[in-house]
Each structure stands twice: as structure tokens, then as C-alpha cells.
Amino acid sequence: MNVDQILNDVIRKEGGFVNNPRDSGGATNMGITIGTLSQYYGRRATVDEVRNLTVETVKEIYTREYVMKPMFHTLPEGVQAIAVDTGILFGPNKATKFMQSIVNQAGFGPVNEDGVLGNLSRSAIFKAYQEMGSYFVDAIVEERIMFHRMRVQQQPDQEIFLQGWVNRAETFRINR
């Protein structure tokens, strides 16, 4: 998948405008929260601005903040889609920490689990993916699901979202 295909898939999964009071992200459209849009604008965004977001603006934000800035476009092609999707859901640092943790657990480290995709981490991810193949992607799926379950344990009111989160993670699983 190229970046445009990855972003189209994310936008499809995220859906349109929602403003669920249980969602800590607040008003969200195509996955862009009011907080993310406020950062993009450099000022506080309004709910109407979130509601009226264009696909072009969403893709610009995603490309800048969740592809280029965290350097996910430099990862192995088979890892890019889940890295971007995970970065959008959890933040790029957490997505990188998931991959760093997998690298260390699988014996391809040691790398610092600091959320920074430096040369050492990138090289270890390439080695791990080369050796593990699709099982590396499946390990990211597992990291995501475990994180979601821990979040619900800490914040039981978030259980309403759990099955959707798990279903979304499972869309990336390769080995069933």
C-alpha cells in the first residue's frame, strides 16, 4: 500500500463526525480530534471546524504528523499501514514503543523503548520484520489489543469502545 491508500483505509475505518461525551478525544471527524485540529491550526479549533473538515485537510494532517514526522514511511512496506494506523490511535511515540518492545522481546534488540524511531530502532525493526514477516505485524496487533484491555481496566467507562478497538486491530492480523 502507498501512503494515500493507507490514509484512505484509516479514514474509512475512522468514519465521519462524532462527538461522544465518553470519548476523551472530544469532537472527532475522520479520526482528527479537536485537539489535533487545534494543534494544526495553532489555535483552539471549534466543533464546527471539526465537523466541516475536508478529506484533503485530514490527509495533510495525517501525512505530516503520522507518516513523515515519525518517519513511518521509512519502515518496511509491510509494517507501514499498521504503524500509521497505530500512531493515529495512540500517538506515534506509543506506536514506535510497541514496535521497539516487539523487537526486544523477539531478540532483535536491544533498543531503547523510548518511542523515537532512530537508526538503531529502524534497523532492528527491519531485521525483525525480515525474520518474522507477518508475525511481526501480528505482534503489533497483540500489543494494541493488550493496551486497549489495560485501558478499559483502568477506565471501565471506556468498555463501550473495546470491541470496536479490537475489531480494528484485528483487520491487520495476517495469520489467523
Show the helix and strand layout.
Layout: H1 3-14, E1 28-29, E2 32-33, H2 34-41, H3 47-51, H4 55-68, H5 77-90, H6 92-105, H7 119-132, H8 134-154, H9 159-170
Antiparallel strand pairs: 1-2
Helix pairs in contact: 1-4, 1-5, 5-6, 5-8, 8-9
Order of helices and strands: HEEHHHHHHHH
Task: Provide the structure class.
Answer: mainly alpha
User: What sort of overall outline do the alpha carbons produce when their principal axes are compared?
Assistant: globular
Strand content: under 5%
Instruction: Give the low-confidence spans.
Output: none
What distance separates the N and C termini?
21 Å
The largest sheet is: 2 strands, antiparallel
In short:
The protein has 176 residues and is mainly alpha-helical. Helix content is 65%, strand content 2%.
Structure description:
- With 176 residues, the chain is mainly alpha-helical.
- Helix content is 65%, strand content 2%.
- It is built from nine helices and two strands.
- α1 (3-14) packs across α4.
- The mean pLDDT is 95.
List keywords for this structure.
2% strand; globular; mainly alpha; 2 strands; two-stranded antiparallel ribbon; 9 helices; 176 residues
